Amino acid sequence: MKSKEEATLAEEFYNPSLSEYYKDLYDELLKRLSKSLYINRVEIIKKELDNLKKLDVTHDLEFLKYQASLNVLIDLSQQGWVFNIYDSKLYLKMENDNIDNKAKMRYRLSAERNAQFKQKSIAEFIKRLEAPHEYKGEMLSIKNLIGDKEHLIKSIRNNDIICSPYVQLVKEEKDEFTGFKLSEIWRYFRYTWAIPYKTMPGRNLFYLVRDSNQPYHPVIGIFALGNSVLNLTVRDDDIGWTYNSIKKELQIKTEDFICDQIVSGTEGKTITTKVSKIIETEKDYQKRKKEFANKFYPLLCKTITNAIKDIYQEDITFIDTENPTKKQIEKLLELKEKYRNLSINNKNNEKNPDWTQEAKTNLFKRKRCAELAKLLKAKATLNETKGKNKLESLENLINSKDGKQTFSTALIANRKIKIGSNMMDIIVCGAIPPYNELLGGKLTSIVACSPQVIRDYTKHYCKQISEIASRMKGKKVIRDSQLVYLGTTSLYSIGSSQYNRIKVPMSSGFCLKYREMGITEGFGTVFFSKETTETFSKILTTIDGGKRINHVFGEGTSPRFRMISRGLGAIGIQATSFLKHYSPRIVYSMDLAKNTKEYLMGYDKKVDYGFNLNDEVEVMQLTQEMIDFWKHRWLEKRLTTVDIIKRLEDFDLQKVLLSNYL
Fold first, then answer.
1. Cα–Cα distance measured from residue 165 to residue 220, given in angstroms and rounded to the nearest whole number
2. What span, in angstroms and rounded, lies between the C-alpha atoms of 44 and 83?
3. Rounded to 5 degrees, what are φ and ψ at 661?
4. What are the DSSP calls for 50-86, one per residue?
5. Which residue has the higher pLDDT, 390 or 542?
6. d(CA 392, CA 406)
7. Which pLDDT does position 331 carry in this prediction?
């Protein structure tokens, strides 16, 4: 049984910074909450919000702060935080038993999703797609894009082709079978997910997986690719982008064993213990270490040099990039602080900006100074620790005072380029009923990694300008667009049957496999409602004098995350605890090339997919090969392991429709 401490993940004092008038209202609210049952507390807070709107007061900053404080409380209750009131003070507690249950997680997520359906524009969208409309002489609706269970049952009983899947990139064009926009079809089915639907900034590709074996080609599943998470330790350790992963390469290899050991003086009693055993000879260790240093150290130095060259320096003439001094670095940091306070109202909507002028803006001059200071410090450390050979240089660097920071600076410089160009995350992936009964989720997970998707990504982004890099360099920068890595996470902490055991051998000699990398908790804003974010936006606009701060590309984390983090701070609430997910998720990765890690690290300059990305026939053949593998490995076995006919007969199309939530 868990102790009280083990059961509590976090406990926070909720004490918003309010004016005297609103502090009195808040204190009165706490008194009412303390006398109520827990299940009634959210309704009491909602009633307070309604009463607040009726007050004859100016909707000024203090009003907005109190409104936001109440909205946040409602959101946190949906996330699983428990309200406790002691001595007229509110404490929020997150306990283990609030996060492990799948049903609770679905409830927490669906509360915000269902709130979306109350928005007029979304409700009208749902009604429009479900209402019949005439297309090519037929009356059709979104229902025609939900698989016909009778068609599937008949095909199974007659031993006919059950389904014929294909992958379709969502473009701004109409579906030839129903007349709906492809983007509207994807959006409708995305709303059926438990997790709320929010548009994501940055790179995005959206896909439908469809069945050409039925009229109108119903949707088997949907998936989407989005920007990779910038910091993910389990992933970065595996690729080699962390200080610890480099340090591990320089250590002798060991393997852990679990064994029983006899305890002396106990008449033969044993204990189970973990023992580490060296698994390479000293000679092999020295050879491997030298080979690694000869390969990695030049790459480290080159990464720093190239990163320095990628920064516009025409207006920073006092630096020596080959032999930087401490004084030069300090001056850069002084300039960074000078331009920090001038980085206001940076919004830029120019379609064809002058990159040199953009680099000279206050915001990017600050960023250039900050980045150059880090890079030049790393360069100076490399100069100071240089040894007789690469291995000695690397070991000197490891053992130096600033060694860890130098490694991090170089590895992050490389990682930023690769994450922004060669990696994506699967941000949506799953089947649409009734195809979930046929393991359509497995199919969708498989084709998300297909040569067709890699080809689409390359074509779509091959000419895209990197806006941040261009502003930093003062000239147009176009990164390569070769997709070599996909990452994703499970929604729940107990693993994902959708990604487990997926291993697809390809005729190209490569095997695509979802690898389980480890566990992450992470941070996010999915639980914060539209009402909360809108109120935070008003608060920050007021605080910033009517100006939006740093709305230009390149200002760090996502705008939504940054706004909510700042918004919490503006009402006097520590953001860190309340932005954590508190629901461990399993991290999965998929290498799309034979040399993914070597390419991401920078050792290899060319990607080896095992096929010709420019050969359309080969790309489509290999994609079909993956679909055929799914049919043999998953679909055929599914027909023999469950009563699939019964499951399909139980399927009710009406239960899929979103109008049920309106």
1. 8
2. 13
3. -100, -5
4. HHHHHSSS---HHHHHHHHHHHHHHHHHHHTPEEEEE
5. 390
6. 16
7. 93
Q: Quick one: tokens of 576? A: 């860190």
Q: Is the pLDDT of residue 246 over 60?
A: yes
pTM assigned to the model: 0.84
Cα Dmax for the chain: 91
- 431-454 pLDDT, tens digit each: 999 999 999 999 999 999 999 999
Tell me the two tokens of residue 312: 């516009």
* Tens digits of residue pLDDT in 305-344: 999 999 999 999 888 999 999 999 999 999 998 887 665 5
Q: How far apart (Å, rounded) are the C-alpha atoms in residues 107 and 92?
A: 19
| DSSP per residue, 513-557 | EEEEEEEE--B--TTS-HHHHHHHHHHHHHHTTT--S--STTSSS
pLDDT tens by residue, 81-131: 888 888 889 998 887 655 555 666 666 666 667 778 888 999 999 999 999
The stretch 284-301 carries a mean pLDDT of 96
**Number of residues that this document lists for the chain:** 662
Q: Which residues contact 247 (CB under 8 A, 6 or more apart)?
A: 398
Buried b (16+ CB within 10 A) or exposed e, 552-582: bbbbeeeebbbbbbbbbebbebeeebbbbbb
| 602 torsion bin: left (phi>0), alpha (psi -120 to 50), beta (else) | left
Extract the tokens encoding 133: 């409309």
At 424 the pLDDT is 96
Predicted local confidence at residue 118, as pLDDT: 85
Cα(74)–Cα(92) distance, integer angstroms: 12
CA dist., res. 203 & res. 481, Å (int): 11
The amino acid occupying position 576 is T
User: Which residue intervals of 315-434 are DSSP H helices?
Assistant: 326-340, 355-359, 362-384, 390-399, 403-419
Domain ranges of the chain: 4-98+523-579, 120-226+421-521+585-661, 233-419
Residues 276, 471: Cα–Cα separation, whole Å: 50
- Through-space distance between the first and last CA atoms of the chain, rounded to whole angstroms: 43
> What percent helix, strand, coil does the chain show, rounded to 5?
50, 15, 35
Q: pLDDT (tens digit, 9 = 90+) per residue, 486-537? A: 999 887 666 567 898 899 999 888 899 999 998 876 666 667 888 898 999 8
Burial letters 637-660, b for 16+ CB under 10 A, else e: ebeeeeebeeebeebeeeebbbee
Q: 647 Cβ partners below 8 Å, 6+ apart?
A: 434, 437
Q: What angle, rounded to 10 degrees, do the helices at 530-543 and 559-570 form?
A: 70
